[in-house]
Amino acid sequence: MRIESGWWPGAAPQEVVEQAEARGGAVVSQNRGDGISQYRIMPAPEKIRLLRTVLFECRSDSGREAMGEKLTEAEQAYAAWRRQMISVATYADSGSEWEARMRVDYARVVIDSAELGREDISREEFHALMDRVDTAYATWTGPDAPAGAVAAWAYLEAAVHDWRRFPDTMGQAAEVFDRWHHQGLKTLDPVQWRSLQQARELTWNGAMEHEPDRADGREGHLATGPEHTRVNAFAAAAAAGVEREGTER
């Protein structure tokens, strides 16, 4: 079957619905005319903008009160999620101090970029957010970035891009990486694994997980080579019989 970019196939599991709502988001389901059902996670900023529009257009007092309560709940949940994403403590399992700071700054970039789309944003706030985004990129992609940081930032950015466009494939690829890891083949180094998990969280496709440990406690073999310089989820998924969204299944 052909799944649209940015969507998951089938009906959303209850766990996914609850997880999205706990962060201030929602799940949007769709039954297409060709008989295919699919769903996507609506991020909190999108849901909040929608609720504000509905609240503005609502004519009844009871309707406005109910919609106002939903809006407040979504805003509070989203605020809590934002605080978590930009807390160094969230990335306590990072391999270095700079890695934790990089993950905080990248999370801020994602959050600030979402804020740039607000209809009520002022010119001053817009430029302040843009300056912060530009500063983050300059810090982690410039010549003064710590050793390994430029590649790590690029990998994380690529992972976010792929999770947004192909969540189903990325989700299945993550399971493949996990299984291979437990079999002793580390297809991702620890920094890459943490980036894959952070990208999943930042794109609202699931919660971050810590790098899985081998059950027997032995170190696995780290695969190397140019094919492992970025997420490469599609190659891993293909090896496990998973096909990319947008192709026939």
Key phrases:
249 residues, 5 strands, globular
List the helices and strands and how they pair.
Blueprint: E1 8-9, H1 14-22, E2 26-31, E3 37-42, H2 44-57, H3 61-85, H4 97-115, H5 123-141, H6 149-165, H7 167-182, E4 185-186, H8 190-202, E5 221-222, H9 233-239
Parallel strand pairs: 4-5
Antiparallel strand pairs: 1-3, 2-3
Helix pairs in contact: 2-3, 4-5, 4-6, 4-8, 6-7, 6-8, 7-9
Strand line-up of the largest beta sheet: 1-3-2
Average pLDDT: 83
Order of helices and strands: EHEEHHHHHHEHEH
The largest sheet is: 3 strands, antiparallel
Number of helices: 9
Shape, principal axes of CA atoms? globular
If you had to describe this structure to a student in words, what would you say it looks like?
- This protein is mainly alpha-helical.
- Helix content is 56%, strand content 7%.
- The chain is built from nine helices and five strands.
- The strands form two sheets. Strands 1-3-2 form a three-stranded antiparallel beta sheet.
- A hairpin with a 5-residue loop joins strand 2 and strand 3 (37-42).
- It is globular and about 60 Å long.
- The termini are close together.
- Residues 212-231 and 237-249 have low confidence and may be disordered.
